[in-house]
Amino acid sequence: MKIVQEEFRVSTKSRNQMIDITSQVRSFVSQSGISNGDVIVYCPHTTAAITINENADPSVPHDILLTLEELLPHHRPGYRHSEGNSDAHCKSSLIGCSEQILIKDKSLNLGTWQGIFFCEFDGPRSRKVIVQIRGE
Ligand code: ZN
């Protein structure tokens, strides 16, 4: 089994934002020479996340962010964390910091409407995404 690890940066533009990173992940997979296996997309941050959802209609990421904002407002009585970004930490843990996607015949085995998103919850910032491809 071969393992390849790559990383790239994402520049976010607003406090809450979902950025489609499917094409970057797809190009690392095609450069890896691995035909069948899997890829882990991971972000090493406590106020950001990685998720898979619909990337055809931009209303979908908009509505996800709107829902998260309603569930976890920026300011809330009872938050103790002095940085003032407790909502972002909660969103990061709720969504999770990685996704695993299968690779079949040199391609990401995603559904027709699925894309991989980097989720910013405390931007704008420069962020890192780590991609690990495993297989043969
Ligand atoms: Zn914090």
Structure overview:
The chain is elongated, with a radius of gyration of 16 Å. The strands form two sheets. A five-stranded antiparallel beta sheet has the order 1-8-3-5-6, with helices on one face. It is built from three helices and eight strands, in the order ββαββααββββ. It has helices spanning 22-32, 59-71, 86-95, and strands spanning 2-11, 17-20, 37-42, 48-54, 98-104, 107-108, 114-120, 126-135. By secondary structure, it is of the alpha+beta class. 25% of the residues lie in helices and 39% in strands. It has a single domain, classed as Jelly Rolls. The model has no long low-confidence stretch (mean pLDDT 97). The longest helix has 13 residues, at 59-71. The relative contact order is 0.40. Bound molecules: zinc ion (ZN). The site of zinc ion has 4 residues, from loops.
Number of helices: 3
- The CATH H-level superfamily is YjbQ-like
* Amino-to-carboxy terminus distance: 5 Å
Which CATH architecture would you pick? Answer: Sandwich
CA gyration radius, whole angstroms:
16 Å
What is the element layout, followed by pairings?
Elements: E1 2-11, E2 17-20, H1 22-32, E3 37-42, E4 48-54, H2 59-71, H3 86-95, E5 98-104, E6 107-108, E7 114-120, E8 126-135
Antiparallel strand pairs: 1-8, 2-7, 3-5, 3-8, 4-7, 5-6
Bound molecules: zinc ion.
Summed up:
With 136 residues, the chain is α+β, with helices and mostly antiparallel strands. Helix content is 25%, strand content 39%.
